[in-house]
Design a protein that fits this description.
The complex is a heterodimer of chains A (about 625) and B (about 325).
Chain A lengths: L2 E3 L7 E3 L2 E9 L4 H14 L3 E7 L14 E9 L10 E6 L2 H7 L3 E10 L5 H6 L16 E5 L1 H8 L7 H5 L2 H12 L5 H10 L5 H20 L6 E3 L9 E6 H16 L3 E5 L6 H8 L7 E4 L3 H13 L3 E6 L1 H17 L3 E7 L16 H6 L9 E3 L5 H16 L2 E7 H5 L1 E5 L48 E3 L14 H16 L1 H4 L11 E8 L3 H13 L4 E6 L1 E3 L5 H5 L2 E8 L4 H10 L4 E4 L8 H11 L2
Parallel strand pairs in A: 2-9, 3-6, 6-7, 7-8, 11-12, 11-13, 13-14, 14-16, 15-16, 19-20, 19-22, 22-23
Antiparallel strand pairs in A: 1-2, 3-5, 4-5, 10-17, 15-21
Chain B lengths: L26 H15 L6 E5 L14 E4 L5 H11 L4 E7 H7 L1 H10 L4 E6 L34 H7 L4 E6 L3 H13 L4 E6 L11 H4 L1 H7 E4 L6 E2 L5 E6 L2 E6 L19 H8 L8 E8 L5 H16 L4 H5 L4 E3 L1
Parallel strand pairs in B: 1-2, 1-3, 3-4, 4-6, 5-6, 7-11
Antiparallel strand pairs in B: 5-11, 8-9, 9-10
Helix pairs in contact in B: 1-6, 2-10, 3-4, 5-9
Chain lengths: ~625, ~325
């Protein structure tokens, strides 16, 4: 659906309901920056947006090669969007390798903009091509726009006397200008960004980048090949003030909020690992919030330091990705035995081992559920979107402090680097997270009992410095109540049960599971984590097509919500799509004896809505 | 109201727990000296925290009536670092062993020392794995026959003091479990030092490695097998105080004072603030070629880690004001619907 609208400039503007664009180039070409700017600008224009950055693990992968291609996909729309889009309305390719590795996703009739200057013989050779893909007959399927971006950029910035390399680096801003014109994007926010980024001593670079951006825009206005531009009306979001937010950023801010709500200082122990490091970078900037960030010598030290801080009465937090979580496993078991509050956050990536550091996957669920020695259950929560990371870490800290145990939060690379518009919450309306430290000895007959429990089975969080409450905690099994070392068989069985029941008690503090769609029917799609948007959109499409299908997205993976079993029983079939080999499916099947069907993709990429709709259609009949 | 400070005694630091070390273990002596020293330091039990890893020595926290964490193998320095960063007001001790600190926890050990966190680390070195019943440790000597090395150890041992120098520790000392007066003095000085204080204690495991340090423990041999480091004093040793240590080029040598050819002034005078290269030379003195130094090898002042970290936080608050969450969430580009 589109409507013609008059334009301020000569060319007409066509309004469409949504656009999906992918920008691809070398990993040094600035595609991620271009994508982030386009996202931010679109969000500011009131569109709903969803993004998918996809880049290689190497910082500067070999130039011009297929392995070095870095991409950023964004969907912006006048309606709610929960995914970055399946197929592309437009593809901007900076070189042949980027073109051939991404062309398959471009819609027939879609717009293909290429940097014509980078299709020389040497570029083709780097991309392992014998002939230019631009000469291929298949190009007739697309609206190909060849732009001499390198040359035009060089000419545009000639007045600044930059080196060839510096001038060449401005070409992503030229591309950006062209894309901005094409989709009626306002340049103001990006101009602010340029001048903010290249301020001190680099004003020439800033001026050149601005010139390149404007030249790209002017090029779009001028060339005949582009007869009109497009635009997208603002989406109808609930009223409020919004900003664009990325997953790791929201997570870091959520930690600040949790600390403030509980009256604690945040102690954050971490070791650099993709894709979690941005949380460390973000929190390191907020020392004025009383945040103590500790870049430890390794993953184990990071979690152990956080445990030490929690023992001292602060908010101990550690984050990592799969390989680091494996290293932290023993210490997580210790925190579980000490019964101290702690947050362990796993920003999942493709595995096993080093795996696919920059790609997304959901294959750590069983690791965080069971990857510790002994009977060692812990609560596990999973974020569903970038903005949700803000909420979920606060919820996790509430659980950790109310139950006195470590809580695991799962995010993933897709959520961590993805962005979406986010309604800014009113901080004054965030309820306090009540935390107290005992001051009095709870044992009239002798020394303080650190393992005396309340109705939720939580022990008191007595902290060093408190007179008369001196006590020792450790990883050896302990007698209930006193916490003294105990090898008594009956006591061990009792303690194992208490620790398990404590985790089960989390369900009492959490809301029940909800379902989107009919309360009973042919098919229930059960999802968790970052596949939320794709599953929701697919179920909505299937519902519109008349299928009897509902959607239950699980936020709480351990313990499961108390009503989940009953919900599962109301549908003929249960389909569980996951970016793993069926980890939630295994848990659901063993817990509820439901013959759940799996749909599993392990490609380091998120689900497309199309493939999910196909799967749903297969089973919902 | 009685506002006078309570005078602390050793009993104030005794916990109600049964001690489960083997009879005759050197650990008893170290515990006794610690309980004697703690009241002298004057920090009340509730402000004191003992953190340990895994091993015989690491049961220590249960036996002192302070706060304590018996953590996991090798990781006590990391737990202690987090605690000290969170709570600089506390007096923190790390109790560890040769396997705990130098093998599984080697990484944390060196990073603790280089950061100079203001805490005290006491390493009970018995050159054996005791709690796992007798395997060789990273300080076991070459050729040592243990359960896991029936034909003798082939690895070259680590020297804890040399490592501490390499990591630029600001306080490095050594003592012997049976030399109780000396041990008490060293522990007290460790507690007084600002920064990471590292104390190696020669500790006899009478079950799995009995007599490993007999040369330094037995009355008959210890005066000739050890040399007491005293700041500003010449390095003299021997039952009759007739031997000394002299610096010759880049090497140390044992010299005889009895014949009068070498005078006291020719000897090496111990300097706790000496160049680390010289301290390193001291750390290499090994029995039987040399008497092994006991006492404080090095004691220098350097800013502590937690002060620097907390200092940045204070500086950030001073320069930017206390963080305002609402302002942060609303920062940058926003739009209103």
């Amino acid at each position: 659906m589109s409507t013609q609208a008059p334009s301020a400039i000569e060319k007409p503007v066509e309004y469409v309901s949504g656009i999906t664009v992918r920008l691809v180039g070398d990993s040094g070409d600035g595609m991620q920056l271009l994508g982030q700017q386009l996202t931010n600008t679109s969000a500011l224009l009131g569109n709903d947006v969803a993004t998918f950055p996809d880049f290689p693990a190497e910082i500067r992968a070999p130039r011009g090669t297929r392995a070095g291609v870095s991409g950023f996909q964004v969907q912006f729309a006048s309606h709610e969007v929960h995914t970055p889009g399946d197929t592309l309305d437009a593809l901007v390719a900076m070189n042949p390798a980027a073109l051939v590795t991404n062309l398959a996703d471009l819609n027939k009739g879609g717009l293909l903009i290429v940097n014509d200057d980078s299709f020389e013989d040497k570029d083709l050779k780097l991309a392992k091509l014998n002939t230019s893909p631009l000469e291929d007959p298949s190009m007739e399927n697309y609206r190909l726009i060849k732009v001499s971006m390198t040359r035009l950029t060089k000419e545009a910035v000639a007045e600044f006397g930059l080196s060839t390399k510096e001038a060449d680096r401005c070409k992503n801003f030229f591309a950006m200008g062209l894309v901005y014109w094409l989709y009626g994007r306002n340049m103001d926010a990006t101009l602010r960004f340029i001048h903010g980024k290249f301020s001190a001593g680099k004003s020439t670079i800033a001026a050149a980048n601005e010139k390149a951006l404007r030249a790209g825009w002017a090029y779009g206005e001028t060339i005949e090949a582009l007869g009109h531009s497009y635009n997208v009306h603002p989406a109808k979001l609930t009223s409020g003030t919004y900003r664009n937010i990325m997953g790791n950023q929201a997570l870091a801010w959520g930690l600040l909020a949790a600390a403030q709500r509980s009256g604690k200082e945040l102690f954050y122990g971490s070791y650099p690992i993709t894709p979690a490091s941005d949380i460390l970078h973000e929190l390191a900037r907020y020392k004025n919030f009383g945040v103590c960030t500790f870049q430890a010598e390794d993953e184990i030290a990071a979690v152990c330091a956080a445990i030490g801080a929690s023992y001292g009465g602060q908010m101990g937090v550690t984050t990592s990705s799969g390989p680091g979580i494996a290293l932290k496993a023993e210490a997580m078991g210790l925190a579980l035995m000490l019964e101290l509050p702690l947050l362990v956050i796993d920003v999942q990536r493709g595995g096993p081992s080093t795996g696919l550091p920059t790609k997304t996957e959901q294959a750590d669920l069983l690791q965080v559920m069971f990857g510790r020695n002994g009977e060692s259950p812990l609560p596990v929560l999973a974020a569903r979107s970038p903005g949700d990371c803000f909420e979920i870490v606060q919820e996790a800290w509430m659980l950790a402090t109310q139950l006195m145990l470590p809580v695991i939060v799962l995010s993933d690379g897709y959520i961590a680097n993805g962005a979406e518009p986010w309604k800014i919450p009113d901080v004054s309306k965030l309820a306090p997270i009540p935390v107290s430290h005992p001051q009095e000895n709870n044992n009239p007959d002798g020394p303080f009992k650190p393992y005396l429990r309340n109705e939720l089975l939580a022990r008191p969080w007595a902290i060093p410095g408190t007179p008369e409450l001196m006590h020792r905690v450790g990883g050896i099994e302990k007698e209930d109540g006193t916490g003294n070392i105990s090898y008594d068989p009956e006591n061990h069985q009792k303690m194992v049960h208490i620790r398990a029941q404590k985790v089960a008690n989390a369900a009492k503090l959490l809301p029940p599971q909800s379902v989107e769609g009919p309360a009973s029917g042919d098919l229930l799609v059960v999802s968790w984590g970052g596949t939320y948007g794709a599953c929701l959109t697919a179920v909505q499409q299937a519902q519109s097509a008349g299928l009897s299908v509902a959607h239950a997205h699980l936020r709480y993976l351990n313990p499961f919500p108390s009503n989940l079993g009953e919900i599962l029983s109301r549908y003929k079939k249960v389909l569980i799509p996951e970016l793993n080999m069926g980890q939630l499916r295994m848990l659901i099947r063993s817990r509820y004896l439901v013959d759940a069907i799996g749909y599993n993709k392990i490609k380091g990429k998120p689900f497309t809505v199309t493939e999910l709709v196909e799967k749903i259609s297969e089973y919902a009949k | 109201m009685n506002t006078a400070l309570k005078v602390l005694k050793a009993d104030d630091f005794a916990s109600d727990q049964d001690i489960r070390w083997c009879p005759g273990c050197g650990d008893y002596s170290i515990l006794a000296q610690m309980k004697k020293v703690l009241p002298e330091i004057g920090i009340p039990p509730e402000q004191t925290v003992f953190i340990s890893g895994i091993g015989c020595s690491s049961r220590f926290p249960y036996y002192v009536n302070t706060y304590g964490v018996h953590s996991i193998h090798g990781r006590a320095p990391a737990v202690a670092t987090g605690l000290k960063l969170a709570r600089p007001d506390l007096s923190v001790w790390v109790i560890t062993g040769d396997g705990d600190a130098l093998s599984i926890g080697g990484n944390h050990f060196i990073h603790l020392l280089r950061r100079n966190v203001d805490l005290n680390i006491v390493l009970f070195n018995n050159r054996i794995y005791g709690l796992t019943k007798g395997q060789y440790s990273p300080t076991s000597v070459e050729g040592q026959v243990t359960k896991s090395t029936p034909m003798g150890v082939v690895d070259h041992p680590l020297n804890p003091i040399s490592i501490a120098i390499g990591a630029e520790a600001t306080f490095i000392a050594r003592s012997v479990d049976s030399n109780i007066k000396h041990l008490a003095t060293v522990l007290k000085r460790a507690a007084e030092h600002q920064g990471t204080s590292f104390v190696e204690v020669y500790q006899n495991c009478n079950v799995f490695n009995d007599g490993a340090f007999s040369y330094a423990q037995d009355k008959a041999t210890r005066d000739d097998a050890t040399v007491e480091l005293e700041h500003g004093k010449p390095m003299i040793f021997g039952k009759d105080k007739d031997k000394g240590i002299r610096l010759n080029g880049f090497s140390l040598e044992v010299v005889n004072l009895a014949d009068g050819k070498v005078k006291e002034d020719d000897l090496l005078f111990h300097d706790e603030q000496a160049d680390p290269a010289l301290v390193y030379l001291l750390s290499r003195m090994r029995h039987p070629q040399f008497p092994e130094p006991i006492g404080v090898f090095r004691n220098v002042e350097h800013g502590t880690f937690e002060k620097a970290v907390r200092g940045q936080i204070d500086q950030a608050v001073e320069q930017r004001g206390r963080g305002d969450l609402q302002k942060l969430l609303s920062s940058g580009d926003t739009w209103t619907v």
